[in-house]
């Protein structure tokens, strides 16, 4: 695997340009995929800032706003890594409320969030109607290889030692889930761009797998 250093602003500008190129008949749907420790939310916010600065309508949708209710995602226990991988993200809701309406033939009416995992209640967020030249940036974990439709995708990869080092101690139980995702999905082959993010402040763009 070959990788070249890249700055976060340069990476955000690259993704923004790809998103603009993909938009037109419908909003571009961009996935920023990776563990929270890889800087997914920060990169997604940077992309949104670039687009907004260029006058492009943009909506950042954290996938954490589409987790399933606690009664469902914690049915197998609070620290079950298989449940974390398989049950936490509500794929149907994310598709129904974000990706389908922003996709071909959709009405552009997107819901920024559905469920607050802290209060375990609906967020009551209002719908946002986006024009065809807009961009929806979805950031989160386990977004690739699950049948979600994206027009542009970047995967932020971390080595096992980096992930283990950066994960908060109370989330160490999730490590096997990230291992399953790496081995079963091989997200680096699903993405348009792959970035090594062992240190999110100093990413490296993978040029050859």
Automatic annotation (TrEMBL):
Superkingdom, natural source:
Bacteria
Output one GO MF annotation.
kinase activity
User: Is Transferase set as a keyword in this record?
Assistant: yes
- Keyword entries, A-Z: Kinase, Transferase
Please report the name of this protein according to its UniProt entry.
Answer: Uridine kinase
